[in-house]
Amino acid sequence: MTLGVFTAGIYKFGWDDDATIEVSRIIPFPAFFVNGTPVSYARYQDYKKAYTTYVTEFYIKGEKKIDINSDEAKKILSDSDKRIKDLLVKNTIIKNEVKKRKIKYTKEELDKSFDEFVKRTGGDEEVKNNLKKYYGLTVERFKTEFFVDTFLSGKLQNAFQEDKSLNAEVEKKANEVLAKVKAGEDFAELAKKYSEDSTASKGGDLDFVKKGQLVPEFEDALWKLTAPGQTSELVKTVYGYHIIKLVEIKGEERKASHILIKTKDYETWLDEEVKKAKV
C-alpha cells in the first residue's frame, strides 16, 4: 500500500519533498533510463536541488539580480531542468563506459584529485563556503556524489588518449589518402575530396604562416620540407592526421596546404553517444 502511494506520488503528482526523496534512496524508483540503465529518482532530485540552488543564488540573485518570482526567473529555472537531465544522461554514459572498459581507481586517487581541485578553486574554506552557499552541499557530499562524476570523466578521457584502437580506421583512411598523394594525384583535389578541415574547399590552402602560428608537430613537419612541392608523411596532432604540402618559401614564411583526417577525440565520442542514447 505504502509503495503504491509513493509510486503514484512520484510519477503522477511529481512529489519532490524530502520524505519522498529519502524513501527513494531505499526503494530505487527510476527517474528515467539511459540505454536501459536506470537513473534513480533520488539522484535526479539531488542534482536538481543542487543545480537549482546554484542557479538561484549565483545567477538569478547574484549576476542577474532579478526577483525570484519574476517570469524571467521562472523561465531560467524551467530551462535548467533540461540541463540537469542532459548532465545525468552524459554521466550515465560515462559510468557505463568506465565499467565496460574495467577502469579502476582507488580512494586515494579520488582524494588526490579532489585536493587538487580544492587548491585550484580557492582552498578549503572558500570551497566549503561556496558549496554551502551556492549548492547547499557539504564538502564530503559534494566529493562523493558529484565530484566523482567529473573524476570518472577524466579517467575515461585518459583511457581514450591511450587507446590506439579507437582511431584505427581513421589512420587507415589517412594512409590511403597519403598513398594517393604519393602516386601523384592532384593535392588540391584530394584535399577537397577527403580533408575534414575548414580549408578543404580551398584545396587545403593555409596561405603563408610563420613559426609559432601552428601546433608544434605540424610546424616541425612543415619546416623539414625544403623544396616547394614536397609533401610530408602522416603528421599526428591533437586534430588528427595531416598530410602537408610545402607550396612556397618566402623569407621566414612558408606557404602550405594540408589534408586533415580528423581523429575521434573523447568529447566527439561523448557527444555522439549522447545524441544516439535511448532515454
Short summary of the structure?
By secondary structure, the chain is an alpha+beta fold. The protein contains eleven helices and six strands.
How would you summarize the topology of this molecule?
Blueprint: H1 2-11, H2 18-26, E1 30-34, E2 37-40, H3 41-64, H4 71-100, H5 107-120, H6 124-135, H7 139-162, H8 168-182, H9 187-194, E3 205-209, H10 216-224, E4 235-237, E5 240-250, E6 253-262, H11 266-276
Antiparallel strand pairs: 1-2, 3-6, 4-5, 5-6
Keywords:
279 residues; alpha+beta; Chitinase A, domain 3; 2 domains; four-stranded antiparallel β-sheet; two-stranded antiparallel ribbon; 6 strands; elongated
What coarse outline follows from CA principal-axis ratios? Answer: elongated
Give the N-terminus to C-terminus distance in angstroms.
Answer: 29 Å
Give the biggest sheet: 4 strands, antiparallel
Fraction of residues in H or I helices = 55-70%
Structural class based on helices, strands and sheet pairing = alpha+beta
Name the average pLDDT: 90
The beta-strand count equals: 6
Total number of distinct structural domains? 2
Low-confidence stretches: none
What is the tally of helical segments?
11
Spatial strand order of the main sheet = 3-6-5-4
Radius of gyration: 26 Å
Question: What percentage of amino acids are in beta strands?
Answer: 5-15%
Order of helices and strands: HHEEHHHHHHHEHEEEH
